[in-house]
């Protein structure tokens, strides 16, 4: 190997993995429950301009979840769902996520891994979703989830 040889390392997932960290002013069990209880999910899930109007969840490993985000402005309905892969109450939630395609079949599947860590009376939530097909889709989800997490923060502050 000569002095002029260089190695090119590429990261095939660059820009296609979403990680969001948030501290919520609530204990981990309460924050976890907001992700586990469909009635509570309806109160915060979805960005402000596309709030959830339907949520169902069979919270068990192998159980399915399904939701619909609805735009009041355009009437567009965005159906999506997945399957629970790992559940540790108050600590971790792992599930698949896929938007419905026009023919009703699931589109590209990503994996969502959420951890809930106690910080005094608060919770550090680490949300990771991967791997997106494009950086643009990753950025779109970043906007959507952050808007939803703003709504979750408001909900938790009322409890």
UniProtKB/TrEMBL annotation:
Which SUPFAM superfamilies did the record assign? Bet v1-like
Q: Name one Pfam family in it.
A: AHSA1
InterPro entries this protein is in?
ASHA1/2-like_C, START-like_dom_sf
Q: What range(s) does the Activator of Hsp90 ATPase homologue 1/2-like C-terminal domain occupy?
A: 25-156
**Signal peptide range:** none
Q: Which family does it belong to?
A: Belongs to the AHA1 family.
**What is the official name of this protein in its record?**
Polyketide cyclase
């Amino acid at each position: 190997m000569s002095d002029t040889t260089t190695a090119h390392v590429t990261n095939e997932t660059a820009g296609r993995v979403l990680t969001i960290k948030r501290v919520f002013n609530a204990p981990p069990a309460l924050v976890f429950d907001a992700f586990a209880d469909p009635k509570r999910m309806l109160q915060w899930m979805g960005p402000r301009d596309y709030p959830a109007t339907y949520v169902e969840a069979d919270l068990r490993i192998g159980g399915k979840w399904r939701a619909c985000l609805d735009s009041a402005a355009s009437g567009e309905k965005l159906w999506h769902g997945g399957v629970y892969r790992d559940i540790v109450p108050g600590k971790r939630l792992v599930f698949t996520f896929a938007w419905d395609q026009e023919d009703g079949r699931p589109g590209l599947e990503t994996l969502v891994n959420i951890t809930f860590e106690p910080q005094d009376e608060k919770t550090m939530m680490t949300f990771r979703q991967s791997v997106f097909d494009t950086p643009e889709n990753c950025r779109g989800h970043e906007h959507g989830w952050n808007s939803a997490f703003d709504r979750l923060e408001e909900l938790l502050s009322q409890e």
